[in-house]
Amino acid sequence: MRAHGKPRAAAGFTLLEVLIAMVILAMAAAVILQHVRGLMDYARRAQIHYVDVDGMLNRAAEFGLRGPNTFEARMQADHIDLVDHGASKPFAQVFNLPFGGALIPIDKALSPYQLYMLPGDLGRSLPLLMPGLKPGEK
Amino acid sequence: MRGAPAQYRPGGFTLLEVLVALAISALLIFLTVSLYQTVLRAGETLRAGHRAWVAEQFLRAQAYESDPELVKRFGVMRGGIEAFSFITRKSAQFGDYGPPVFVTYRYDQATRALVYDEVPMPGWWNAKPGDFHFTYDDLRYASGDQVWHDSLFTDLAAVRFSYWDEEHDRWVDDLNTTSKLPAAVRIATTGPLGRTIVLENGASSSSSSSGSSPAAP
After folding, report:
1. B138-154 pLDDT, tens per residue?
2. What is the pLDDT of residue A32?
3. Which own/partner pairs from B46-51 qualify as long-range (CB within 8 Å, at least 24 positions apart)?
4. B24, B57, B198, B207: best mutation site toward chain A, by most A Cβ within 10 Å?
5. Considering only residues 181 to 210 of chain B, which have any Cβ-Cβ distance to chain A shorter than 8 Å?
6. Are residue A21 and residue A43 in the same domain, yes or no?
7. Most buried among A61, A102, B16, B37, by the most CB within 10 A?
């Protein structure tokens, strides 16, 4: 018999009620955490993007500092690979060259504008459009 | 009488009930605080990455807009392994169209940050030649409302400045001149958001790309 005939609700919560409340709270927390995880993933991807673009901008800034004898120029079918001595991957590729069957030395290329592609580590590349050298200039 | 004490129970909780309630409350509080801290950390991570990117772009633009004429005229540029000072036309206070400013990037060991100081150049143009004098120390240690101070990158273990030596085609730790801007400045930082930034001097790059020297291969 209930003491003094008190209604059931006044006696407190049952275990089932407490468990249901906790499950609801846990689900709400899980939804929030899922969104937070999405934000963290976005931040990580953005950070990788920043680092990659940062590296390409550094390469672009260092590009003009290179002397003519600090790398090799390797002719390809439609472009030229510029490769550091001893390296296998090109640090830049040159397009828009006047191919006429002759191998033109890279420092004598006569294109009005040459498109340099500076590759990033994640497969992206940074284009640099630079004027070609005039004949006889070194 | 055996049944008598039970008649006084409804007014209170047993010790077990109180302990269980406390445990559940503590668990809920712990979960809520953890969730709050996680959200804060996520927000801070987002903000920190973006701030670093904006600061980096500002540094690149500022170095590109450095003023070789004023640097040459006043000889107040300094470059060492922990700091770099020069004159530029891009200001944190006035943007691109204000007065030229004298800026210093330096590593502050106390705050583990790459800090930035900026002070507008004194109005030398109003003075007669020879009447207006100021030194590097006047600008570097200036005080007042117009001095701008900020932290660009924080939580850095170390910062190292180096400068491109055009004569020897290599990076050096110290500038041996106070009046000629280097073609490029490299800032290498180490830490959670550590990165290397190569700052290009716009005046140098524009002269090289005009075809006067084989800067591009």
Report:
1. 888 888 888 999 988 88
2. 86
3. B46/A39, B46/A42, B46/A43, B46/A46, B48/B193, B49/A43, B49/A46, B49/A47, B49/A50, B49/B193, B50/A46
4. B198
5. 183-184, 195-200, 204-205, 208-210
6. yes
7. A61
